[in-house]
Amino acid sequence: MTRSANDHTPPLSDGALALLPPPGSAPRCASHARAIEVDPVGTALAVELAITVELPLPWPKPVFAHPDLDGLRPTMSLGNDRARILASVPTTGDARAIRVWRRTADHTVAVTVDRGDRTPAEAIEVLAAHGIETFARAFGADVAGATPAILICTQGSHDVCCGSEGGRLADAALRHWPDGAVHRVSHTGGHKFAPTALTVPDGRMWAFLREDDLAGLASGDADVGELAPRCRGWWGADTGAAQAAERAVWAETGRHEPGRRVEAVHGAPGEHRVVDPSGSAWVVTVAPGREIPTIACRADGGLPAKPGREWLVTGLRRQG
C-alpha cells in the first residue's frame, strides 16, 4: 500500500507509512513531528543573504502572491549570492524597511534601509546589481557588523502551527532580545518544526524552540549540547548531509567559527570535511536515516503526506 500527497508526489515507503497518525486522528503537523521524534537537521537554508521586507498584515498564502512583492521570489540569486527573501511584520507605521544580513568569509554584516518610493523589487535590484555597500549608500544607510537578532516564522496563513506556536515564541522572545531584534517573518520552510527561527549573526536555523532556549540564544551562552538536537543546520553548509556534518562538529566542540568550510570528500561517499579557519579539521560520515512523512496539518490520518528524509551521523573523527 502507498499513500502520498497526490499523483505528483513520490509514494511513502513502508517505514514512513508506519509513522503516519492512525485513521481517525488529525494532529497538527508540528505535534506529530515531535511525537515521532523527527531530527530536523539538514533542513536549514543555505544562503549568503537573508532579507526581510516589511509588509502589513494580513499576508496571503503564498506570501509572494501579495502585489507589493511582485517581481520577487522566496529564493533568488542576487549577483553571485543566494538569497532568501521573507516578509516581516512592520515595526513602524510606514512599513518601508528592508533588512539585509550577509554572510561573509569571517563574519555577518547587516544593514537596514528605508526603501522610500521604490518598490521592494526595485530596491533589491540595487542590491543585486551593486552589492551591499553600494545598496546601503544608495539609501543613506551604513553596513555594520550584525548584532544578535531572531527571525521567527509566524505566518498563520501558511500553517496553523507557525501562526500559533511561532506567535507565542515571538511574544516570549521580546523578553530576552533588545528592542528591534525580534522579527516576525513569513514562511521559512519546515512548518512541521514549528516554532521555527533563524538567528543571526550565527546563521543557525532552529526547530521546536522553547521559551527556555531563548535566553541562551540571545546572550550567546546557550548549552550547545542541549540545543544541538533542535538545530536544523547552519546557513553556510549545503542543505542535507553537509548540514548534519557541520552540526555534529558544532555539538562536539561547542564552538562555531564563522569562516568554517564544509566539503564532501571526493571518492568517499557520505564523508564530509569540516574545516575551521583556526586549522581544526574533522571528517564526518553521514548516512541517510529514516524516511519520514510530512503530514497534512489537522487532516484525517495526516493525509495527504509527503516523504522526507532524516540524516544520521555514523562517524566523527578529528583530522591532524
Entry keywords:
320 residues, alpha+beta, six-stranded mixed sheet, five-stranded mixed sheet, disordered N terminus
| Count of structural domains | 2
Distance between the termini: 50 Å
The ordered string of helix (H) and strand (E) elements is HHEEEEEHEEHEEEHHEHEEEE
What is the number of beta strands? 15
Read across the widest sheet, the strand sequence of neighbours is 2-3-1-4-5-6
User: Which structural class is indicated by helix and strand composition?
Assistant: alpha+beta
In words, what does this structure look like?
By secondary structure, the chain is α+β, with helices and mostly antiparallel strands. It has two domains: 49-145, no CATH class; 149-319, no CATH class. The chain has seven helices and 15 strands. The chain has a six-stranded mixed beta sheet. A hairpin with a 6-residue loop joins strand 12 (261-264) and strand 13 (271-275). It is globular and about 55 Å long.
How are the SSEs ordered, and which strands pair?
Blueprint: H1 14-17, H2 29-35, E1 49-54, E2 75-78, E3 81-88, E4 97-103, E5 108-114, H3 120-138, E6 144-145, E7 149-153, H4 160-173, E8 182-185, E9 197-200, E10 204-206, H5 211-219, H6 224-227, E11 231-234, H7 241-253, E12 261-264, E13 271-275, E14 281-294, E15 306-319
Parallel strand pairs: 1-3, 7-8
Antiparallel strand pairs: 1-4, 2-3, 4-5, 5-6, 7-9, 9-10, 10-11, 12-13, 13-14, 14-15
